[in-house]
Write a structure and sequence with these properties.
Blueprint: H1 2-102
Length: 110
């Protein structure tokens, strides 16, 4: 009877130790899975922030380029308009000069 009790106690001890090891292993697995999940979420957030930053940079660059194009267009148009006005003024002066030669008694004023 003593031997059977000893074997039973040893068996129970082994079962308890095995159960404790399984619990510790499960806890370690949960910690590892949690760490992996947190790392994955952090990586996904970083990738998302990088993509959003890239899109923002593209939008900013596009806006800057459009502003430069619009500014250059305004400058070119204003210079062309100024040149047209100068040419029109010269044409008027030439016309005035020719009219005054043809009709010296008539005064043309603007």
């Amino acid at each position: 009877m003593l031997l059977e009790n000893l074997i039973q106690r040893e068996s129970i001890t082994i079962m308890i130790i095995t159960t404790i090891i399984m619990i510790i292993t499960n806890i370690m697995t949960i910690i590892t899975m949690s760490t992996t999940t947190i790392t994955t979420i952090t990586i996904m957030i970083t990738i998302t922030i990088t993509i959003i930053t890239s899109i923002t940079i593209i939008i900013t660059d596009t806006t800057t380029i459009m502003a430069i194009i619009i500014t250059m267009d305004i400058i070119i148009r204003s210079k062309a308009d100024r040149k047209r006005r100068l040419n029109a003024n010269k044409d008027l002066q030439q016309e005035h000069y020719e009219l005054s030669k043809m009709f010296p008694s008539i005064s043309v004023s603007y």
